[in-house]
Design goal:
about 325 residues, alpha/beta, D-Maltodextrin-Binding Protein, domain 2, six-stranded mixed sheet, three-stranded antiparallel sheet, 10 helices, Tripartite tricarboxylate transporter substrate binding protein, BUG, Bug_dom1
Length: about 325
């Protein structure tokens, strides 16, 4: 195992980033009961490596609420450690080696970040302990309602446009990659979260951007934004977004899948891993979870432990086809 106290310097989303030296965690120690089973006590930290207000932040807050419904002897709290497209938060979390009273929201960007040119992080997704995959997401492309752009095919023909990007090596980057392959030439403007992208769009700071359906829907419904296409495999089953064509319907090849899941630190015990798997299995049975899946137009999918690890390996192989 590589040192958990390693300093990293990452060139991420166009800016020089010092991720700093991790010095161990502040979560709970590993409490092993007499029968050899793990159970946390006190506060369990649920880390989000992205800024407040975006899809990652919302996902972890929903899962925190769902976990807390059944938690006994502990409670979870969410902590944001954004920066560098996830490099800061995930590198901090990597430093919590062997400390099972901590969890982190993870997504496709944790696969892609180590592939980014100029980024040095001391970990890959394989270093963390897989707990649960609880859903999949996609991306749609949105623009201000008064834009001359009406479809992603229009966007693909542009040569001078500012497009927002909250994750060069995540789902946003994959959507932009498909548009560039179709002919788009654009200036990619980096942001820390989808929430920041929405603010920039509404303020006419950018002309288009990828966004999750959940983030875009309120603004499409209000008439502030319009959806140009979706990179999902099928159109959404939704009153507001159901008429949005897929990118492939408009002649643009490619779909985008963003997984949403939870990881634990490296080197926790099997007992701790099994405890958290069971807690998330219970969480995905709650009304809070099912309302989140429905409201955010997500694809319901659950995988745990070894099955989740196998999914990550397959997803990683697919990701490398985009970015290597």
């Amino acid at each position: 195992m590589r040192s958990r106290a390693r300093c990293i310097a990452a060139m991420a989303t166009g800016a020089l980033l010092l991720a700093g030296c991790t010095q161990g965690g502040q979560g709970q120690g590993e409490d092993i009961e007499e029968n050899g089973e793990y159970h946390p006590s006190g506060t369990v930290k649920m880390v989000v490596a992205m800024a407040p207000g975006g899809g990652s932040d919302r996902a972890m807050r929903v899962m925190s609420e769902a976990i807390n419904e059944n938690a006994e002897g502990y409670n979870t709290v969410v902590e944001n450690r954004e920066g560098g497209g996830g490099a800061v938060g995930w590198s901090y979390f990597y430093g919590l080696d062997g400390e099972p009273g901590n969890l982190v929201k993870a997504e496709s960007a944790i696969n892609t970040l180590p592939l980014q040119e100029g980024v040095e992080v001391p970990w890959t997704y394989e270093d963390f302990t897989p707990i649960a995959l609880f859903g999949e997401d996609s991306r749609m492309i949105v623009a201000p309602a008064d834009s001359d752009l009406n479809t992603c095919a229009d966007l693909a023909s542009t040569t001078d446009l500012a497009i927002g990007n909250s994750g060069t090596y995540g789902a946003d980057g994959m959507a932009i990659h498909h548009l560039e392959q179709a002919g788009m030439q654009a200036n990619k403007v980096p942001y820390g979260s989808t929430g920041e992208v929405m603010t920039a769009l509404l303020g006419d700071q950018i002309e288009a951007a990828p966004a999750s359906a959940a983030s875009a829907k309120p603004y499409v419904e209000s008439g502030d934004l319009k959806a140009l296409c979706t990179f999902s495999e099928e159109r959404f089953d939704d009153d507001v977004l159901g008429n949005v064509e897929t990118a492939e319907e408009q002649g643009i090849d490619g779909t985008v899948v963003l997984w949403r899941g939870v990881l634990a630190p490296p080197n926790i015990s099997e007992a701790a891993q099994e405890f958290w798997i069971q807690e998330f299995q219970k969480a995905t049975e709650t009304d809070v979870y099912h309302e989140y899946i429905e409201d955010d137009l997500l694809i319901e999918k659950q995988l745990y432990g070894d099955e989740f690890a196998a999914y990550l390996d397959e997803h990683d192989a697919e990701i490398r086809e985009y970015f290597q």
